[in-house]
Amino acid sequence: MLKLIGRNLSPYSRRVAVAMTLLDIPHSREYLSVTADPDRGLEVNPVGRVPVLELEDGERLIESAAILDYLMELVGPAKSLIPPHGRARRDCIQFMAIGSGVLDKSVNAIYEVRRRPAEKVHEPWRQHLLRQSAGGLAALDARAASRAGAWLLNDQIGMADITAAVAVTFLRVMVPELVTEGLYPALYALTERAEALPPFQAHPLEKP
Ligand SMILES: N[C@@H](CCC(=O)N[C@@H](CS)C(=O)NCC(=O)O)C(=O)O
Hints:
- The chain has 208 residues and is of the alpha+beta class.
- It folds into 2 domains: 2-75, 3-Layer(aba) Sandwich (Glutaredoxin); 86-201, Glutathione S-transferase Yfyf (Class Pi), Chain A, domain 2.
- Helix content is 55%, strand content 7%.
- The chain has helices spanning 11-22, 38-44, 64-75, 86-114, 123-146, 159-174, 185-195, 198-201, and strands at 2-5, 27-30, 52-54, 60-62.
- Strands 2-1-3-4 form a 4-stranded mixed sheet, covered by helices on one side.
- Strand 1, helix 1 and strand 2 form a beta-alpha-beta unit.
- Helix 4 (86-114) packs antiparallel against helix 5 (123-146).
- The longest helix is centred in the middle third of the chain and has 29 residues, at 86-114.
- 37% of the residues are buried.
- Residues 10, 12, 34, 48-51, 63-65, 100, 107 line the site of glutathione.
């Protein structure tokens, strides 16, 4: 059976977990925190990060986008949460990139505070990271607003939506100043709709 390594506080791990459940892909979990156990992180991934997907023969895949690419190929084009070709595929991958870019920048902003001694936090850099994250959130909100209540690409939830919703939920807990009430109404509405679905509820964000 496939094994997904990484806990649900990691939004990159959570987006893979939600996708696997939505696609009915049987898998086990190892809820690894690389902060608590960096040695295990380096054992399963040469660069010590989660998520990692362990295949049945022991091969390990790293990087959530690469893991998702593998999973979409596994389920085939009819079920894939990333359209197989053309404009729809390009748009999906671009909005996934914006969502993961929001996460990359905000996770770095979190590390700036949590992983450095207080006197070494460089606040102008943290603010720059937050501006980059906010830029991505505004782009996702504009797209969601233009879709008049549908999902980002079409009428079915896909990987761009999952990434966007997982990012907003993560930020609400970890960087609430980025997602204050009323700031991105269409994106928040999309997040609420997504989080109400069983595959999201099966993988709630862990408390930090
Ligand atoms: N681009 C990677 C990012 C993964 C990532 O940064 N994961 C975090 C957890 S949220 C991590 O493992 N951080 C530990 C570290 O970078 O030292 C992906 O999409 O999988």
